[in-house]
Amino acid sequence: MTTSNATLIRNGRVITATDDYVADVLLQGGIIHTIGQNIEVGGDVTVVDATGLYVLPGGVDTHVHLENVIGPTITTDTFASGTKAAAFGGTTTIVDFALQTEIDSPLGAIARAQRSAESQVNVDYSLHVIVTRVDDQVLRDVRHAMRHEGVTSFKMFMAYPGIMMADDASIFRMLRQVGADGGMVALHAENGTVIDLLIKEALEAGHTSPRYHALTRPSLMEGEATHRGIRLAELANAPIYFVHVSSNDALKHIVQARSEGIPVFAETCPHYLLFDDAVYDNDDFETAKYVMTPPLRKPDDQKHLWRALRYDDLQVIATDHCPFCMKEGHLGLRSSKLRGTDNFAQIPNGAPGIETRLVSLFDIGVMQGKLSLNRFVELTSTTPAKLFGLFPKKGTIAVGSDADVVLFNPAVTQTIHAKNLHSDCDYTLLEGRSLQGRVEKVFLRGNLIVDGHHWHGREGMGRFVPRGEVRAF
């Protein structure tokens, strides 16, 4: 066989959502060209010996916030730094957010995000639109975005009144139209008005430390909003997706709805599996690094999340990578948790995690017997690709799929330190933690972009990926 600009991955253990076998994989022309035994190639083909390594499809992270303006703040990572961190973590496709402001349309939001991303992204990307206002024109723009812009998912908030919260009728209108057109509405489910009241009462009582972020966002209010969102979707006869599910109070409604045949899908995040609410048992400001929404929950909630991951009541593990520095950082207070030094309600909500998703889940999931290798791939690559219209271009190792490939070493351990990561965030929740497994090489459409500690990618090489209809049911 004569090939050019090609790479042969020799003798690796190929793991997909359904397969587990040793084979050679030929990457050529940006796609997976051939999978077989003892593939013969010419001298112009780069041969990589993957003996002892897993050959995984590139990770698909469908919940990240890069350069996202949230009220008076902006997330620390740029499209450049965030996608470089993603690549080193074995993620080759992200889905970020385009925020519809009060004065523009979903189409304006998409164009604005693409202008910012296109010259910076190091991996492939797509966008969800955050819809904050719904009227007849917005619905027309949403339909246009689905048909002509390749954007088929839209996020809405049941929290943050006056900033991003949508009322139930607006959510219902979106569900009805987007569902009928083959797309997906993703919901942030918390009862925002009740939570705002609890925050107000806590501050009036003089409670200002970060721990009160968790105490004013009880899991009951996540559960109530999840139940309400499910019933709106049922009435609209539409699928629905819940982001960052953290508690059994929310999960139990998802499980019940799925048992009734309602197309409900949901994700959780690594931090809800790695940490619990014991981190809030102090008044130290360092606790601000754990201020994310929803907050961390109880160990019993973790047990229910793991069960749901095993039995497919949760289908995706995404990061909700939403980084803000613990110091002033390179963008000053606008990107710093220090905004809330004297008022927990002013601490920007979010934590980093885009680079450590695969290795942390391999360590706590696969190595501890909670996830099979196939399920690990399914949760971090295949199902997110299916749910959000990227499959089979993304999310699997198959002939004709994009040559987004990760070589993963299961036999080594590494100790995580923020200084060695590639995010612009100045901390990691996993500081000093030893994890088993390491990303060795990463290919984006056949191009080697990560080789151990060495970076071979370049800003702007990532492409916008237009997405199709939901494929998971």
From TrEMBL:
InterPro entries according to UniProt: Amidohydro-rel, Hydantoinase/dihydroPyrase, Metal-dep_hydrolase_composite, Metal_Hydrolase, Metallo-dep_Hydrolases_sf
GO MF annotation list: hydrolase activity, acting on carbon-nitrogen (but not peptide) bonds, in cyclic amides; metal ion binding
Domain Amidohydrolase-related: 54-448
Parts forming coiled coils: none
PTM annotation (N6-carboxylysine): residues: 155
Keyword Hydrolase set for record: yes
Post-translational modification remark: Carbamylation allows a single lysine to coordinate two divalent metal cations.
Cofactor: Zn(2+)
Classification via PANTHER family: COLLAPSIN RESPONSE MEDIATOR PROTEIN (PTHR11647:SF1), HYDRANTOINASE/DIHYDROPYRIMIDINASE FAMILY MEMBER (PTHR11647)
Protein name per UniProt: Dihydropyrimidinase
Organism for this UniProt entry: Rhodoferax saidenbachensis
Taxonomic path: Bacteria, Pseudomonadati, Pseudomonadota, Betaproteobacteria, Burkholderiales
